[in-house]
Amino acid sequence: MKTEHLHPNADEVVRLDDVKRYYQVGDETVHALDGVSFSIRKGSYWAIMGPSGSGKSTMLNILGCLDRPSEGAYWLNGVNVAEMEDNQLSDHRLRNLGFIFQSFHLIPELTVRENIEVPMLYLGLSHGERARKARDLADRVGMSHRLRHLPSELSGGQRQRVAVARALANDPAVLLADEPTGNLDSATSVQIMALFQELYEQGKTVIVVTHESDIAQYAKVNLILKDGRIASMRGEGLG
Amino acid sequence: MTRLFIMWPFIQLGLTDVWRHKTRSLLTMLGVVFGVASVIAMLAVGEGASLQARESIKRLGSQNILLSSEKPPADEGGNANAQQGRLTIYGLLYDDETRIRETIPGIELTVPARMVKRNTRFGERQRELRIVETIPEWFDVVQRPILAGRVLKENDLRTHANVCVLTAQGARELLAAKEIIGQRIRIGAGMFEVVGIVKNDGGGSVRTPDSEADVYIPMTTGKKMFGDTSSRVSSGGMEGERVELGQIIVRMTAVEVVEAGSTAIEAMLKRFHKKQDYKIDVPLTLLREAERTKRTFNIVLGAIAGISLLVGGIGIMNIMLASVTERTKEIGIRRAIGARRSRIVIQFLINTCVLSIGGGLVGLMVGVLIPFIITWTTEMPTVVQPYSLALAFGISAGVGILFGLYPAMRAASLDPIEALRHE
What we know:
The complex is a heterodimer of chains A (239) and B (423).
Chain A: H1 2-6, E1 12-25, E2 28-41, E3 45-49, H2 56-63, E4 71-76, E5 79-80, H3 86-96, E6 97-100, H4 112-123, H5 127-140, H6 156-167, E7 174-178, H7 186-201, E8 205-209, H8 213-216, E9 221-226, E10 229-235
Parallel strand pairs in A: 3-8, 3-9, 6-7, 7-8
Antiparallel strand pairs in A: 1-2, 1-4, 4-5, 9-10
Chain B: H1 2-20, H2 22-60, E1 64-69, E2 83-84, E3 87-90, H3 94-103, E4 107-122, E5 125-134, H4 137-141, E6 146-149, H5 154-158, E7 163-167, H6 168-175, E8 184-187, E9 190-198, E10 214-218, H7 219-226, E11 229-234, E12 237-243, E13 247-252, H8 258-272, E14 278-281, H9 283-326, H10 328-337, H11 341-378, H12 386-412, H13 416-421
């Protein structure tokens, strides 16, 4: 396959090549991303920062395979997302991405266990497998005592832990967190960031999109966006 | 099998969704419940009515042609037919029967009958019953099963015997619970021995040659005893009628020649009768008409039922569209996690199908119950047809899929980014 052939380094789980994303607003073309290139090694911990209007959200949507670049190429786990159609994009999200949102986005009618099982359901795992994995994952984030509870019966920190467990459900290549502590108090924030640290140490690739610099400090690489371009990129392990 | 296995959690999801909004689901289902119930109930009532009509027509025999005398409309300024004083003369003649039997091809036999109302009495009990003066073949042609004793015989005719056959209803009215065969009853001025009882049944919507409580006597006896003229006292004095034959039943040799036969008979009667004082009924034609009527009825019924199911379907669609809006965020979450569009479509479609099939099942039960209650309370016959159950249920499931598809597609076509942002 052409895309795989072009892929330069199997060690790179994420690679952006001159990614542009523009929107047509009336007669004007807005360049949300204006030529961004970088690559993320497997097992690294990144923070993407920037003020509002910097293209941060657009970057999140593209990294999360919810949106496609207007120009350029985005390889996630060796496949060029820019060339995918909707179904492939969905499958790619299911297998390679674990989303963690600012407001948790658990399904309110489902119990903790059922929420964690949702991605496995779409992958077609059997009932027994799902139950076993959900227990393991809940255990991993310290929520195994709340499996039968509804999200509304949990605190914010607990909900985010469940969300992390759900994100890990299909063992994705990348964990993508969008302001994961935005709705949490500082003490709980520290706990959640400690959980991320733990996952990073276990070899997970973690990307946190945030505007809070103290959250970004946990990451090993900080990328700052401004006006749709990379303003700075600092940290360990950069090529 | 594996596909179904994978589908099961989604079906469960649909069921929980429905259960979570019990009141709303119930109200939504009502539309389908009434739709399905009305289809089944209406078809059952319609089938019951038409079955009754067709049965009574069939009893007349599809090989038969029925000629009956009919009083012509009183014409203004004198009359063409003979009228002496207040004596009205009309109807089929003995000659008509002979002419028909002898000249029209394809006739197997003809059965003449005279009908008169006579006072009939047994001991203290007294009723005015219809007396049918006829020949033995009558019982064969109208297919009356014998309940007791025997029917009229050729010998009764020859000997002008004073014997009579009653219908079960007539026997009940006249003789109550007593031993019936061998009793002597008075008809008009004569005494008759009851020799047999035949089954009777109600005429229904079609005019049958017999009524519920009849007394059958040999034609020859009747003619000797009562003559052709019947008279009764009315407000204007004595009023008389002279009718030779009340009825002639013509049985053709085969169903194929019935229509040709009836045309020929009509042409002949027209030539010999100046007035339209007779009526020709062809059961075969009536049967075809009844079947045509039934078809029309079914089409009208189908349309009404279709409309009610349509309304039910629109109700479902309405609720599902509201549900899609309500659950926009959930759709966004599921899509972001990696659900394909088709999964979202299936989730919502299952939801609607649970509603419509659930409604269909309840409607099925109600639809079977209604005809039962109708028959129980009004004694109107109803026939719940198995095909109507399948039809109504199939349509309700179809409605669910059809009207669920649009909301489901709309849910699936939501942009996940927009859906996630939805509050």
